[in-house]
Write the structure tokens for this entry.
Amino acid sequence: MYPNDGFRELDRQECLRLLAKVPVGRIVHTRQALPAVLPVNFGLDGDGAVVLRTSAASELARAVDGVVVAFEADEVDAATQSGWSVVVTGAASVVTDPGEHDRLLRTGPRSWVPSPREVFVRIEPELVSGRELASGRSLYGVRLPM
């Protein structure tokens, strides 16, 4: 972030707290050497890892297993010109440990589109960054144009 761009940088704990408030984000990965973005519902694990639940046969599970991805979630209020955005970057992997899978069945996110065989994808939070714009004001207290 640039020091004069009007946004406030969020620390890691603030980012994780905000992520826990919203049910949907976007995963960014590579498909045929191009960026691909998919909206997904998600949950946070105790260590701050982002956890997705998807069909074992999904293209997403195959595309992200073992690669670095980005995950973004936000909350924006256009009327007040305020909001925040958080990005988590890290290695994604399909959870293969049976004990971990069973634990996530109990505590992890619920699929919005259930399938007969589901897997969990875990994104390790190697880089966590975020920014916030409060009430359309810059860092200098100047009201931004509507």
